[in-house]
From TrEMBL:
Superkingdom to which the source organism belongs: Bacteria
The species this protein was found in: Methylobacterium planeticum
Residue ranges annotated for the CN hydrolase domain, each copy included: 12-257
Pfam families in the cross-refs: CN_hydrolase (PF00795)
SUPFAM superfamilies: Carbon-nitrogen hydrolase
Designated name of the protein: Hydratase
Molecular function (Gene Ontology), one example: hydrolase activity, acting on carbon-nitrogen (but not peptide) bonds, in linear amides
UniProt keyword annotations, A-Z: Hydrolase
Keyword Repeat appears in the UniProt entry: no
Presence of keyword Hydrolase: yes
Length: 281
């Protein structure tokens, strides 16, 4: 496996797929997302990110409804389909999924690649009514060491916590993939860009990591979503996007993950090594 900071490691193309899952239509959502994954792979993408809960939709009305749509990871039909596609196409996929494990439900993200299933991340910070259906994640913030590089994962509201990205960066993550379903924030002025764009650009800048955010679009059971997916470089500048608020899109950007390994801002400054752990831990 290629190791971090190996100068022979080539840049890779990352894709964020912004689309509109249909609530409860797991078969249709998997089919549509698979078409879009194929399109991204055909265009050269090696790391492909899908939205949060991309297989089920987001606005659950009851625990029974959530339970009926959740499935095992990696053994369920969605995980099996996405993993088989990753193997077929020779790509890595990070995709939001409703996971059932041991009688508990998690808002999760599947990580899979050319050799099959790699792992799962479970959302640490639950937003609003998610607390009625899901259990808070119990796996911490794992970093997956892959053939492309070191991949971290966060889901939607995780991005409101600086600790999420700091933990991942300190653990060696080079790129953080963010399946998300951003919604308008309280008090958001008409036409204002998603607050998430500001938060994730700041996180990339403050931690020296790439961040790839794949949001959804549409209105589901009265809940509008923000769209505006984007891919951000290690200095916080946008490499691709933001996408539109309301149209399916595939964003792509070419990234050199070795840039994340340096994390330098000037000849004298590195955002992680400059931390005053003697002052604030």
């Amino acid at each position: 496996m290629i190791q971090a900071n190996d100068p022979a490691r080539p840049p890779i193309q990352v894709a964020c797929i912004q689309f509109e899952p249909k609530f409860g239509d797991v078969e249709g959502n998997v089919a549509r997302s698979s078409e879009l994954i194929r399109a991204a792979a055909q265009a050269g993408a090696k790391l492909i990110v899908l939205p949060e809960l991309a297989n089920t939709g987001y606005v659950f009305e009851s625990s029974d409804e959530a339970s009926a749509l959740a499935e095992a990871v990696p053994g369920g039909r969605t995980a099996t389909a996405w993993s088989a596609l990753a193997v077929e196409l020779g790509v890595h996929i990070v995709a939001g999924i409703a996971e059932r494990s041991g009688g508990r439900l998690f808002n999760a993200a599947l990580v899979t690649g050319p050799d099959g299933f790699i792992g799962v991340y479970r959302k640490a910070h639950l937003w609003n009514r998610e607390n009625l259906f899901f259990v808070k994640g119990d796996v911490g913030f794992p970093v997956f060491d892959t053939g492309l590089g070191k991949i971290g994962v966060a889901i939607c509201y995780d991005g409101w916590f600086p600790e999420t990205f700091r933990q991942l960066a300190l653990a060696g993550a080079e790129i953080v993939c963010v399946p998300t379903n951003w919604v308008p924030m309280p008090g958001q002025p008409e036409g204002e860009a998603a607050m998430a764009n500001t938060l994730h650009r700041a996180a990339a800048h403050s931690n020296g990591v790439f961040i790839a955010c794949a949001d959804r679009v549409g209105v589901e059971r009265g809940q509008p979503f923000e769209g505006q997916s984007l891919i951000i470089g290690t200095k916080g500048w946008t490499l691709s996007g933001p996408a539109s608020r309301d149209r399916p899109e595939i964003l792509t950007a070419t990234v050199d993950l070795d840039e994340a390994g340096r994390k330098d801002l000037s000849d004298f400054n590195s955002v992680l090594s400059d931390r005053r752990t003697d002052v604030y831990g």
